[in-house]
Write a structure and sequence with these properties.
With 317 residues, this protein is α/β, with parallel strands linked by helices. It has two domains: 18-153 and 236-314, Rossmann fold, CATH 3.40.50; 160-230. It has helices at 18-26, 67-70, 100-113, 126-137, 160-170, 180-189, 195-201, 223-233, 264-271, 287-290, 292-314; strands at residues 37-40, 53-56, 81-84, 119-124, 142-148, 205-207, 217-219, 249-254, 275-280. The strands form two sheets. The chain has a seven-stranded mixed β-sheet with strand order 1-3-2-4-5-8-9, with helices on both faces. Strands 6-7 form a two-stranded antiparallel ribbon. Helix 3 (100-113) crosses helix 4 and helix 5 packs antiparallel against helix 8 (223-233). The relative contact order is 0.14.
Length: 317
């Protein structure tokens, strides 16, 4: 069967699915961008070969946002871990086009570039959507899936602070602002009353690309593209009837998160029939910050169980 080639070539380990291909063709696909990443070696010598972990961040975050969590001594200690910056985030290139399937295509290109044939995939928030799409479209590349506080569906209206945060960042005029404190005051005037949210948004602060006398600061994220794409980022792609990811999957929600609802499990099991759904008590959307120890425990337990099963099945020849 003839493979569909993109600007940077189709996945070397598998062709693009028909829906994925039609979506990219019909929406003026511009080609993947080369994602920046960080690599963390395993903290202990593994007893047997384990698939590496790829951690995908949420909206307005970056791989660096999760650095303290990923570097915990008790977080998947026997696994190699990669973190990436999605397009328009962190140190990765900017591009106008930004929807879930396009983000997933960037991640697939990253896997090919690193020659990672199969990985254990973890995604938080927006990264969870990207992870789900990648697993559904290319299940042979994802050994097991962990999704942190994100259901497979639209999230429009469920996280009101997302739109207000994007708008507040977009409305920042950096002319005359000298430091982080100045920018934080502007964000507060722009309606961001929650100090924790302001401090999170400020992790995107960087020096201006053109350091002029009156503009010394800028956003690392491509806030224009993110604002233009917010509806697409809060949606979830359609899949052909019967499409499933028939491998182990773990969905972890914070009990205080607005995304933790009873309706989630039905939607999850329709696409991910082997999924386990867990709630972390007293945690909100940022469960890896609110309850890092418990979140780490449930992720470790899931991945360790799958690794043990792989070892047992491998011994049967």
């Amino acid at each position: 069967m003839k493979r569909f080639l993109l600007a940077r070539g189709a996945s070397r380990y598998g062709g693009w699915s028909n829906i994925f291909k039609r979506h990219l063709q019909s929406n003026g696909f511009e080609g993947q961008v080369q994602l920046k990443h960080n690599f963390f070696a395993s903290k202990v010598a593994p007893k047997h070969k384990q698939s590496p972990v790829l951690f995908i961040h949420g909206l307005l975050a970056s791989g660096r946002t999760y650095r303290s969590f990923v570097k915990r001594k008790d977080f998947v200690p026997d696994r190699e871990v990669y973190t990436i910056d999605l397009r328009n985030h962190g140190d990765s290139p900017h591009a106008q086009r930004m929807d879930i399937r396009t983000l997933a295509s960037d991640v697939l290109a990253f896997l090919d570039g690193q020659e990672l044939k199969q990985i254990s995939l973890i995604g938080h928030s927006l990264g969870g959507k990207v992870a789900m799409v990648l697993a559904l479209e290319f299940p042979e590349r994802v050994k097991e899936l962990v999704v942190l506080d994100m259901p497979p569906g639209k999230t429009t209206g469920k996280m009101r602070n997302v739109n207000s945060a994007i708008q507040a960042m977009y409305n920042v005029d950096f002319h005359g602002l000298g430091d982080q404190r100045d920018v934080e005051q502007v964000l507060q005037r722009n309606g961001i009353e929650d100090r924790r949210l302001r401090r999170f948004l400020l992790t995107n602060l960087a020096g201006a690309k053109d350091d002029t006398d009156d503009q010394k600061l800028s956003w690392k994220v491509n806030i224009q593209s993110i604002q233009d794409s917010v509806d697409q980022l809060q949606s979830f792609p359609e899949f052909r009837t019967g499409t499933t990811y028939n491998k182990p999957a773990l969905f972890v929600f914070g009990s205080k998160s607005p995304l933790s609802t009873a309706k989630n499990e039905e939607r999850i099991r329709r696409l991910f029939p082997q999924a386990t759904v867990i709630e972390v008590a007293e945690a909100g959307h940022w469960l890896q910050d609110d309850e890092p120890k418990r979140t780490c425990e449930v992720v470790n337990s899931f991945l360790s169980e799958q690794g043990q099963q792989q070892q047992c099945s491998g011994g049967d020849g």
